[in-house]
Amino acid sequence: MTFGTSFRSALKAVAATAPLLALLSTPSFAQTAQPWLNKALSADERASLLEQELTLDERIGLVHGPMALPFFFKDGKLPDGAMAAAGYIPGIPRLGIPAQRESDASLGVTNPMGVRPGDFATALPSSLALAATFNPQIAYDGGAVVGLEARVKGINVQLAGGVNLARDPRNGRNFEYAGEDPLLAGTLVGESIRGIQSQNVVSTIKHYALNGQETGRNVANSVIGEQALRESDLLAFQIAIEKGQPGSVMCAYNLVNGAYACGNDFLLNKVLKGDWGYKGYVMSDWGAVKSTDFAVKGLDQQSGEQLDKEIWFGAPLKAAVENGTVPAARLSDMTHRILRSMFAAGLFDTQAPASYDAARHAGVAKAEADEAIVLLKNDGQILPFARTAKSILIVGGHADAGVISGGGSSQVTAGPDQLVISPGGEGPMAMFNRVNYHPSSPLKALRARLPDTRIAFDTGQYPEEVARKAKAYDLVIVFATQWAGEGEDVPSLALPNGQNALIEAAAAANPKTIVVLETGNAVSMPWLNKVPAVIEAWYPGQQGGEAIADILTGATNPSGHLPVTFPASIDQYPRVDIPGLDLGPTEQFDVVYEEGADVGYRRFAKLGMKPLFPFGHGLSYTQFSYGNLQVSGGSTVSMTFTVTNTGKVKGKDAPQLYLNATPGGQAKRLIGFSKVELAPGESKTISLAADPRLLANFDTASNSWVVAGGTYTVAVAEDAGQAGIAGTATVKAQKLKP
Ligand code: BGC
After folding, report:
1. pTM across the whole model
2. Do β-strands 513-518 and 374-378 pair in parallel, antiparallel, or remain unpaired?
3. Does the residue 617 lie in any domain?
4. How far apart are CA 46 and CA 29, in angstroms?
5. 24: Cβ–Cβ under 8 A, 6 or more apart, which residues?
6. Nearest residue by C-alpha to atom 7 in ligand 1
7. Bridge partners of residue 479, in order along the sequence
8. Sorting pLDDT into bands at 50, 70 and 90, what band is 31?
9. Same domain, 9 and 68
10. For position 513, which CATH number holds?
11. Of the candidates 615, 629, 672, 623, which has an alpha carbon nearest to the alpha carbon of residue 652?
């Protein structure tokens, strides 16, 4: 149902008559006076009705806003209606437009620098850990937790959805992203966004695009060919946007092929809004806007405006619209897009619930950590150890206090008892850097599970002391951590603070030394051959200690799989030195992504390199076998196969489907995956059809995905390094829209 303009003007004239107001304030009349409140209309129709009511100043008011932290404001006082969080865009009460209150992010609702005293939130495992679950349902459930908590706290825009591909294992924000593969990352991030928005909160997806390293992130120019970009990072965004329908896309700090990502006509107007038909709005990263012209290039909203040189989308944009440099229609489109996303997420139609069930949310964090932890090595089935060990020495990693988490804007505070350590140092991020340990102690969790086992703890500061003690225990478990955070990359793959020497010393003294890694990235393991077992627990979130203890003792059967390749050395990556590392903060430089679309395991396959652990790797306490593979062709490749648990305990497997060859030759790509739980002896049949874009190459001349006609070889395998069971199918030649 729509309402004509004259009818609406008549109603407004009547409503302006004071004595009639009481009479007219029935809900049905309110609905006709504000026709955009009619839920039967589409989000676009509602946005159009509302948008045309806006004055120029109101339009301008919707397209920019500050970072909402008190110390940015005079007298430390936030604007009325704002809450202390990452960002704020004032509402328009006259028209019932709610303020946009924006908070970070994917791992939980943040409370930057504790600006809202006593306000805690569920801290989920890192997004890289989420990717290791290979489980879209877990991504959705985690998103729903984040969305509900945000809404209850009064936040209606969540700055989540990091989907940049892990192109460099030293990127300080890889823990905020979902790994190196477009299908895996796009699927899980899309589901997480869908979960957030299911709670009537707008979610972003970020950082669009190619924010592939933190070093020089404001000045780095990412250089890559269009075909390669479409087949890699952009494909991850495209899949996630299709699945999650995020209300907003956050453009990145860096430049892409010479133009800032937030003022990049190709990325924003041509690809996102043109080819993909994206209907939501583009918000800038905080301090990523350089001119009003960015509006013409496709940016819809300037965020964290105090961090920019000017509030470009305030008075300068108004003047530009008045003098015609920026068309008025563009400004209308900007506000239309913002309002549309607010309608689509239900911001106008729903009330925030009063509370959430923190215990249930802790359970979601635990379930995610359970499936995220990867058993990398388990010689002689030393794990699980519940039945065998009488005495255990736990070493290092502050395992007595909790589990480490990543730093920067995504840092969640789960409770009052965090162990917080300042790493100190110099540089722009030094004053903000804090290493936070969620109070979920693996030591305490192990003691609770193994009351009859003698368990001691050593901080691990002195390797000689650990070596001396280690001999007297059945088992030694060394907890090794690597902290990473926003704004800087880790300089090397090596574990910091002498932890490699610590592991070597422990392993030399006691061959039953197990290593538990809590890292934000792949790390090197020079001691790998000297220890029988290694688990990668990532940043496992607020239930991480319990999840690690359950894996070690066998209460949980590990089912995580690597969402990134663990290289044997940094020489296996195209950029041995991190570009821009020694340049001044304002000096622009190029990061040439010469690997193109061959990110991670694809490049390993192409060059025949053997990593330390391949993408997709992950052991279990049981065994799985694959069989009965049937492959059929046509417009894409479809596969049916059975997975059987051939071992003695229940477990979950993540069978992976890889493309091994196209008619054009070798091409390693993940084209499907599944997560399945099986009792001992049980089999399940799985059928999957590949998204044809994963078989295709992007043809820039025809602006389309081109699937070559001919024979495709595919395989079901345990990881990207295994041949698996292969089959072939004939796929017909076709062109698909971009
Ligand atoms: C980060 C974004 C974040 C924003 C607001 C920026 O520094 O890059 O990911 O959403 O801050 O906190």
Report:
1. 0.95
2. unpaired
3. no
4. 17
5. 14, 15, 33
6. 286
7. 516
8. low
9. no
10. 3.40.50.1700
11. 623
